[in-house]
């Protein structure tokens, strides 16, 4: 169901408010570059600082602009199961192709609690679900055995975005899970290593800036051209790293603002890049674009 390259969209702001025209332009650029899909209101979309109404506006706009030309997923996770169910049902009503549901953060449930949380959401929707494991942000890890239980017990839990940073984890998941259950990298810099042990794509931050290049890396590997995929990975690696030199999505929005695509504005507690880090990012971008 979910395989290929998905862009974790930034949410453009201007003077503190949603900048929907810039969002529409960004989505059109993604589609023109041949992206598989886009993810609205995920971590990169600054979902923690969006109101309920703003999340709905972003999701609805993304679905309307995409018009079926690429898949649209909505981030609907929460540390409240009831809130996650409500958000998932709302996104389903707006016509998304699937939902990205992050592990509950802050309250640190047990593995049984995680299983029951995701199962309750899955039972409340017909939409395909992509689990999102990112223990560095959530302080809880969806264990491979729990993913296996969900894959077996919930027909619409079909994929995981794995952002644990562990190749061993992807190997373990691939060995446990049915072939129909897909694994996507949650880190641009680990896309190639994850592909090598059974992942089938990426939910990418870098593709906000370079959708064609990130898509080409994934497609090269999937078509068997491992040497080209490795060359592209090594060429893009400094970019992958420096887009996280400060908290995501600050560097990506800064780079998009240099292109004139949108404002660099983020919402507090995120703030503008330091001058030193901005200079480093610009040098990295210039080197990447000059090497093409």
User: Helix and strand string, N-terminal first?
Assistant: EEEHEHEHEHEHHEHEHEHHHH
Task: Give the overall shape, derived from the CA principal axes.
Answer: globular
Mean pLDDT: 97
What's the architecture in CATH terms? Alpha-Beta Barrel
Weakly predicted, low-confidence segments: none
The percentage helix is 40-55%
Number of helices: 12
The computed structural class is alpha/beta
End-to-end distance:
32 Å
| The CATH H-level homologous superfamily | Aldolase class I
**Rg, please?**
18 Å
Under the CATH scheme, which class?
A: Alpha Beta
Largest sheet: 8 strands, parallel
Number of strands: 10
Strand content: 5-15%
Number of domains: 1
Describe this structure in words.
The protein has a single domain (4-225), classed as Aldolase class I (TIM Barrel, Alpha-Beta Barrel). The mean pLDDT is 97. Helix content is 47%, strand content 14%. The chain starts with a strand and ends with a helix. An 8-stranded parallel β-sheet has the order 9-8-7-6-5-4-1-10. A two-stranded antiparallel ribbon has the order 2-3. It is an alpha/beta fold. The protein has helices spanning 20-32, 52-66, 81-93, 111-123, 135-138, 144-153, 167-176, 191-196, 211-222, 226-242, 250-258, 275-290; strands at 4-8, 13-14, 17-18, 37-40, 71-75, 98-102, 129-133, 157-162, 182-185, 201-204.
């Amino acid at each position: 169901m979910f395989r290929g390259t998905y862009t974790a969209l930034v949410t453009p702001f201007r003077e503190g408010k949603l900048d929907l025209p810039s969002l529409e332009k960004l989505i059109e650029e993604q589609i023109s570059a041949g992206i598989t899909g886009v993810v609205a209101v995920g971590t990169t979309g600054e979902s923690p600082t969006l109101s309920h109404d703003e999340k709905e506006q972003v999701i609805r706009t993304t679905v309307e602009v995409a018009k079926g030309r690429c898949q649209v997923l909505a981030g609907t996770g929460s540390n409240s199961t009831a809130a996650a169910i409500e958000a998932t049902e709302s996104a389903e009503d707006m016509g998304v192709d699937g939902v990205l549901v992050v592990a509950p953060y802050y309250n640190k449930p047990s593995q049984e609690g995680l299983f029951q949380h995701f199962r309750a959401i899955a039972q409340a929707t017909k939409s395909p679900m992509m689990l999102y494991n990112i223990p560095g942000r959530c302080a809880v890890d969806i264990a491979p055995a729990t993913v296996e239980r969900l894959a077996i017990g919930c027909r619409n839990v079909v994929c995981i975005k794995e952002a644990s940073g562990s190749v061993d984890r992807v190997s373990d998941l691939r060995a446990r899970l049915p072939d129909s259950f897909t694994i996507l990298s949650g880190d641009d810099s680990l896309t190639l290593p994850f592909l090598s042990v059974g992942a089938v794509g990426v939910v990418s931050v870098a593709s906000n800036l370079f959708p064609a290049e990130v898509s080409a890396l994934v497609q090269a590997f999937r078509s068997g051209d491992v040497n080209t995929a490795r060359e592209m990975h090594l060429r893009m690696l400094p970019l992958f790293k420096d887009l996280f030199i400060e908290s995501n999505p600050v560097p990506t929005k800064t780079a998009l603002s240099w292109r004139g695509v949108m404002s660099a504005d983020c919402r507090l507690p995120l703030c503008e890049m330091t001058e030193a880090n901005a200079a480093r990012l610009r040098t990295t971008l210039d080197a990447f674009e000059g090497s093409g």
